[in-house]
Design a protein that fits this description.
By secondary structure, this protein is mainly alpha-helical. Helices cover 62% and strands 1% of the residues. The radius of gyration is 28 Å and the shape is elongated.
Length: 621
């Protein structure tokens, strides 16, 4: 393979030697362009500050007892990220630092979504600034770096990661990972404090790994970066190339060594490195890659009609349209990048930042069918994509007029592209304003996705459109009669409709299929209570509490049942347990005050129905 050109053949990587951006003699001239890019990025997402919590925000924020107290801190490192959902057994996501991030947000903003959204947008703006710094170092031209930052900051493909609060983990990961890489670069270019920069880089890498698994690609990026460092010996012998390979590997070695204890902790917490979420054969993974990669290429190049879910499923049986055609498209893109990389070291580095962060999401066996393609997975890869587009724009030199010392055509193209991307971001982001809009869009883009159907049915039920909701759920139940979650959702819908016999039948089936379904036991208990079977209700709700003692309203419902049974002491204990978990539960507080007044008397006041205070929405599993 031909070695990339030396530094003499490329634009200098020193910002001081670049042309066309800095207005000399004024500090404002130095920072004004990037300041404008950051301001536009913030304004593109300013509407999200009024958005609600949606989708997984309910489980990770609204009903996540882990973030309500620092006493759970040791558990953050011992469980998978979805351990907050008692119905979830084994998991694939070891992200212990995700909980402290959520905890800090909770301390600052409580359950008011505006503050959470503000943090998400600020994190994205911060990443946009780091993309500029990274691009200056790798591409060697502030104007090209400015274009890369503008493309990254305003690209609509980031809507899921920014407008959806739970998606902000992508931005935080990027902050840590890019910062770690920049510290690594400083350790190579500032020998006087190399050890300090390397230590900072390793610390940030450790934090990034503990935040999200994608960080594991950093050693590969560092290896490629070292391998592409300019060398004078362009016609090096095999011996010199081997020596350079060893030096590149040596640069990545501290990061590889730091990865080992992380992997050990991951295996202990997850009880394995990973747990496949589907039983598809390995061959299906390979057959699915062409359509998946083409999906990502399309969304980077043409980010229109974005959604939280798409009808992209495993390709078990290869076909012309799902394997060959997308495979040809991917091959052509790959060949173009290969050809470009042979002539440009900067293109190689940008390609590494685009392709290597995609490697973890190609392990699609850990995702369920129809749930392995999401726009948020493009957040980090789009850093490299933005640099590639900026490099391409730098080659456009039409006309003699110049702006900031560069051809005016380049500036015009950057402005037009940024405007189009920004407009797309503003218009497309409305999808994430509420659960109703989110699932309505998802149902349009993924009408055959059962997860989407189940969640959309839940929203229809909340809107009082129970018959429509039941129709969708029955379609899923016909195909998956042995699914605990589907039976649960059908039962819950019947419960809301007042059809208690059908509700009891399906909820009973749900807990038979999954004896750890706390929500199933909980609503079965409420169904029994409405049918007048108080003792049976007590057994079911007590089982729900035993499975998930931290769930909202479980203790309150059990307290109401104990009160109906005349067991005031046990009822008072349950109401106090509910208030300890949720200090804002006014109904529990009122019951406590009432029972404390009645402790000395045998009479008790009539209790309200437990579900009248329930704010919990059934989890769509």
């Amino acid at each position: 393979m031909q070695r990339p050109p030396s530094a003499k053949q490329e634009v200098s990587s020193s910002p001081q030697s670049s042309h066309g951006l800095i207005v000399r003699g004024t500090e404002w001239g130095r920072f004004a362009p990037m300041t404008i890019v950051l301001l536009l990025t913030f304004l593109a997402y300013i509407d999200t500050l009024w958005f609600k919590f949606i989708y997984d925000d309910r489980a990770l924020i609204l009903h996540n007892y882990f973030i309500r107290s620092w006493s759970y801190l040791p558990r953050y490192f011992a469980v998978h990220a979805w351990a907050v959902d008692a119905t979830t057994g084994l998991g694939n996501y070891y992200r212990p630092l995700l909980f402290p991030w959520l905890r800090i947000n909770f301390l600052l903003f409580g359950l008011e979504p505006a503050g959470w959204h503000l943090f998400s947008v600020v994190a994205h703006v911060g990443v946009t600034l780091l993309v500029y710094v990274l691009s200056v170092k790798l591409l060697g031209d502030p104007l090209t770096a400015l274009a890369a930052a503008a493309i990254f900051g305003l690209h609509p493909v980031h809507i899921e990661a920014v407008a959806w609060v739970s998606g902000s983990s992508e931005s935080v990961l990027a902050l840590l990972l890019i910062s770690s890489f920049l510290c690594f670069l400083n350790s190579r270019t500032r020998p006087g404090r190399a050890n300090n920069w390397l230590a900072a880089s390793l610390l940030l890498y450790a934090l990034a790994m503990l935040f999200k698994e994608t960080a594991l690609v950093l050693p590969l990026i560092i290896f490629v970066t070292e391998w592409c460092r300019p060398r004078e010996d362009l016609e090096a012998t095999e011996r010199l190339r081997t020596r350079h390979f060893r030096r590149s590997l040596l640069a990545a070695t501290p990061y590889l060594l730091l990865t080992i204890p992380y992997l050990c902790a991951r295996v202990v917490a997850l009880k394995s490195f990973q747990h496949p979420a589907s039983n598809v054969p390995v061959t299906a993974v390979f057959w699915t890659w062409p359509s998946l990669l083409w999906f990502y290429i399309q969304h980077l190049l043409w980010p229109i009609g974005l959604s939280g879910f798409y009808d992209l499923t495993y390709v078990v049986h290869p076909s012309f349209s799902r394997v060959f055609l997308p495979g040809v498209g991917v091959a052509l893109i790959a060949f173009g990048l290969y050809w470009w990389g042979r002539h440009s070291r900067q293109a190689v580095l940008a390609t590494a930042w685009m392709l290597l962060p995609l490697l973890p999401v190609l392990n699609i066996q850990v995702f369920g069918d129809g749930n392995f393609a999401h726009d948020r997975y493009l957040y980090l890869p789009s850093v490299g994509f933005s640099m590639l587009v900026a490099l391409g724009l730098r080659r456009v030199e039409v006309g003699r007029r110049s702006v900031f010392g560069r051809p005016a055509t380049q500036t015009v193209l950057i402005l037009v592209l940024s405007s189009v991307l920004g407009f797309g971001t503003v218009s497309e982001s409305l999808t994430y304003s509420s659960d109703a809009r989110f699932y309505a869009r998802c149902y349009v883009t993924a009408p055959h996705n059962d997860t989407v159907k189940a969640n959309y049915a839940s929203i229809l039920g909340e809107q009082g459109r129970s018959e429509e909701a039941l129709r969708l759920l029955q379609e899923i139940l016909t195909r998956h009669p042995e699914s605990s979650s589907v039976n649960y959702n059908v039962g819950y819908t019947y419960y809301r409709m007042g059809n208690l016999d059908e509700a009891r039948r399906h909820l009973t089936r749900a807990i038979q299929l999954n004896p750890q379904d706390a929500e199933g036991f909980f609503y079965l208990g409420l169904t029994q209570l409405k049918m007048g079977h108080v003792d049976e209700a007590a057994l079911d709700v007590r089982k729900a509490v035993a499975i998930n003692p931290h769930a909202d309203n479980y203790h309150f419902a059990l307290g109401v049942i104990f009160k109906l049974q005349g067991n005031l002491a046990a009822a008072l204990e349950e109401f106090r347990a509910e208030l300890a978990l949720n200090p804002n539960h006014s109904a529990a507080r009122a019951q406590i005050e009432q029972l404390e007044r009645l402790q000395a008397t045998p009479a008790t006041a009539e209790s309200p129905p437990p579900d009248s205070h329930s704010t919990r929405v059934p989890a769509q599993r």
